[in-house]
Write a structure and sequence with these properties.
Oligomer: heterodimer
Number of strands of chain A: 0
Radius of gyration of chain B: 18 Å
Distance between the termini of chain A: 37 Å
Shape of chain A: flat
Strand content of chain B: 15-25%
Strand order of the largest sheet of chain B: 6-7-8-3-9-10
Number of strands of chain B: 10
CATH superfamily of the largest domain in chain B: P-loop containing nucleotide triphosphate hydrolases
CATH topology of the largest domain in chain B: Rossmann fold
Order of helices and strands of chain A: HHHHHHHHHHHH
Distance between the termini of chain B: 41 Å
Largest sheet of chain A: none
Largest interface: A-B, 20 and 28 residues
Order of helices and strands of chain B: EEEHEEHEHHHEHEHEEH
Structural class of chain A: mainly alpha
Chain lengths: ~270, ~250
C-alpha cells in the first residue's frame, strides 16, 4: 500500500505564499503610484485652469501615444541607442580609470583633477562645444551621456575598491597573492555593491541626459520630438514623451537593481537564506 | 641548527613614538610563543613585523634561513587574525581551497580537515551561517591550508565567550599535536597564554619592551585539568604580578 512520505524538500523549504495574495501585492505596488499620479494630474487640471496644450488630460496623452506611435517609436530607438552607447562608455571610462588608479596609484594624482574638472564643466557648454566639433552626430550625443555618467561610476568604483576588508587584504599579502588575484578575488567582489549603486544612478540618468542632448542639438530622438512638439504647440506630445522617458528610466533602474542584486554577494546571500 | 624564527634587535618607531623597544628572541621549531601584555604594548606590531606586513625600524627577522620577506614570498607563513578572514561569499570548504589555490600548494584535503576540525555538515555554509567558534575554526583551517611552517595568530579567540574560548583553545592545542607548527600567538588573556604556550613573552605597557620570558615547563597538548595545576596557577600569578607592577609604576 502506498505510503505518503514527506520529501526532504517539503520539510526544509517553506511553502510559497498563495498565488492570489502575491498577485494582489504586485498589483497594489503598481496601481498605487499610477493612481496617485493620475489623481494629482486631474487635480492640477481642475485647479490650475491652464489651457489643454499646457496641461492636457491623461486620456489625450494616451491617445497621442497610440496615434503617433510610429513617429515616437523611431525616435525612442534613436534615444535608446545614444543612451546605451553613452552608458557603456561611462562604465568603460569610470571602471577602467578606477582600476588604473588601483593598479598605479600615482595615476590618480595625475588624472583625477582632470576628471573633477570635466565633471564641473556645465553640460550646456560641453554640448555646444561637441556640437561645434562633431555636429549632430552619434559621437557628440554619446560623448555627453558618457561624460555625465562616468564620474559617479568612477567615484563609486574607487570607494568600493577601497572598501575591501583589511583582514582579507592581509590574508592575500601573507599568501603573496598577485595584484590580479587580490583585485579579482577580494577587491572587486567588495566593490560590487558600490558599482551596482553607480549603475542605478548612471543607467536611469543616461536616458534623461540623452534626451537633453537631443533637445539641444539633434534632429532625431525623444529630445527632438519634444522640440518639434513645442514648436507646434503640441503639449500632449511633450507629455507623451515625458511619460515614455520616465517609464524607461524606471524600467532601467529596476533592471539594474535586479541584476545588481544577483551580483551583490550581500543581497544574494540574504536571498539564499530567505 | 637554525632556529625556526630568529628575532634580532627588532624595534619599531612611529614618528617620535616607540611602539616596540628592541626585542631579541630565538624560537625553536614546533614551539608556541605567546606574546602577552596590555593593549597597545606592541604585541601586534611584533607579529606584523614577523609576518612581513610591517617594516621594523631596527633589526631583522629570520624564518629558518630566510628573511621574513623571503619566507612570505615562499608562502611559509600562515596568519590568523582576530576577525576571521573567511571570504563572506564563499562556502567554508571553498574558502579553505581558496588559500590552497592562491598559495599554489595543497597542505591537506579540505573536507577531511574540516571534519577533523568538528565542522562536519557545515562545509557548505557561508560565514554568516556559522557561529563565532565555527567561523574561527574555518579561519584557522584556511590559514593552515597551504601547510605553512609558521603560524602567526593575533588574538584569534578574543571575540569568543570565556567557555568557547577555553574549548577552542584546548582543541587548537590538540590539533597542533597532529600538525606541528611554530606559532607566535598574541593575546592579552594570561590564562590562555599559560594554557597554550611553551614560553610567554611578557610585554610592558607602551612603549612595549619585553619584561620577561616565562617558560611553561609542561608538555603540550594540555587538557583542562592543567588549569587546576599548581604550576599553572603559579605561572599565571607571576605574569599577573609582573604586569600589575608595570601598571602601578605607570
Amino acid at each position: 500500500m502506498p505510503t505518503d512520505i514527506a520529501l526532504p524538500s517539503d520539510q526544509t523549504r517553506p511553502a510559497p505564499p498563495p498565488l492570489l495574495p502575491r498577485v494582489g501585492m504586485v498589483a497594489l505596488r503598481v496601481l498605487t503610484p499610477v493612481c496617485s499620479v493620475l489623481a494629482l494630474w486631474y487635480l492640477a487640471i481642475w485647479f490650475s485652469s491652464l489651457p489643454a496644450f499646457v496641461i492636457p488630460r491623461p486620456e489625450r496623452v494616451l491617445d497621442v501615444l497610440w496615434v503617433d506611435r510610429a513617429f515616437i517609436f523611431v525616435n525612442l530607438l534613436a534615444t535608446l541607442k545614444v543612451a546605451t552607447i553613452g552608458f557603456l562608455w561611462a562604465n568603460i571610462a569610470g571602471i577602467g580609470l578606477a582600476i588604473l588608479f588601483d593598479l598605479l596609484p600615482p595615476t590618480r594624482h595625475m588624472l583625477m583633477p582632470a576628471a573633477i574638472t570635466l565633471r564641473n564643466v556645465p553640460y550646456i557648454a560641453m554640448i555646444s562645444v561637441l556640437m561645434l566639433a562633431f555636429g549632430d552626430s552619434i559621437l557628440s550625443k554619446t560623448a555627453i551621456v558618457a561624460l555625465s555618467g562616468f564620474f559617479p561610476v568612477l567615484v563609486n568604483t574607487m570607494a568600493g575598491l577601497r572598501a575591501a576588508d583589511e583582514v582579507q587584504l592581509d590574508r592575500m599579502r601573507i599568501l603573496n597573492a598577485s595584484w590580479w588575484q587580490t583585485f579579482s578575488q577580494v577587491r572587486l567582489p567588495y566593490a560590487i555593491p558600490s558599482i551596482v549603486a553607480a549603475q542605478e544612478i548612471t543607467g536611469s540618468s543616461s536616458i534623461i541626459v540623452a534626451i537633453a542632448a537631443e533637445w539641444m542639438i539633434s534632429s532625431t530622438g525623444l529630445g527632438y520630438v519634444i522640440n518639434h512638439a513645442m514648436q507646434n504647440y503640441r503639449g500632449d506630445q511633450v507629455y507623451a514623451v515625458a511619460l515614455i522617458a520616465t517609464g524607461l528610466s524606471f524600467v532601467i533602474y529596476s533592471l539594474v537593481h535586479a541584476l545588481g542584486g544577483r551580483l551583490d554577494w550581500r543581497v544574494a546571500g540574504e536571498q539564499r537564506r530567505g | 641548527m637554525a632556529a625556526a624564527i630568529s628575532i634580532r634587535n627588532v624595534s619599531r618607531r612611529f614618528g617620535d613614538n616607540w611602539a616596540l623597544r628592541p626585542v631579541d628572541l630565538e624560537i625553536a621549531a614546533g614551539e608556541l610563543i605567546a606574546l602577552v601584555g596590555p593593549s597597545g604594548c606592541g604585541k601586534t606590531t611584533m607579529l606584523r613585523i614577523v609576518a612581513d606586513l610591517q617594516e621594523p625600524t631596527t633589526g631583522e627577522v629570520r624564518i629558518g634561513a630566510d628573511s621574513a620577506s623571503e619566507a612570505r614570498r615562499k608562502r611559509l607563513l600562515g596568519l590568523v587574525s582576530q576577525r576571521p578572514a573567511v571570504l563572506p561569499w564563499k562556502r567554508a570548504i571553498d574558502d579553505v581551497r581558496f588559500t590552497q589555490k592562491i598559495a599554489g600548494r595543497v597542505g591537506f584535503d579540505p573536507a577531511t580537515v574540516l571534519r577533523e576540525f568538528g565542522l562536519e555538515g557545515h562545509e557548505t555554509k557561508r560565514a554568516r551561517e556559522l557561529s563565532g567558534g565555527m567561523l574561527q575554526r574555518v579561519n584557522i583551517a584556511s590559514a593552515m591550508a597551504h601547510d605553512p611552517s609558521v603560524l602567526l595568530m593575533d588574538e584569534p579567540f578574543a571575540a569568543l565567550d570565556e567557555m568557547k574560548r577555553e574549548e577552542i583553545g584546548e582543541w587548537f592545542d590538540r590539533e597542533l599535536a597532529t600538525r606541528p607548527k611554530t606559532v607566535l600567538f598574541v593575546t592579552h588573556h594570561i590564562d590562555e597564554a599559560v594554557m597554550l604556550a611553551d614560553r610567554l613573552l611578557v610585554f610592558s605597557p607602551a612603549p612595549g619592551r619585553v619584561l620577561e620570558v616565562v617558560s611553561v615547563p609542561v608538555p603540550r597538548p594540555r587538557d583542562a585539568a592543567f588549569r587546576q595545576d599548581p604550576r599553572f596557577v603559579a605561572i599565571a600569578a607571576h605574569v599577573r604580578s609582573l604586569l600589575a607592577q608595570q601598571v602601578e609604576a605607570a
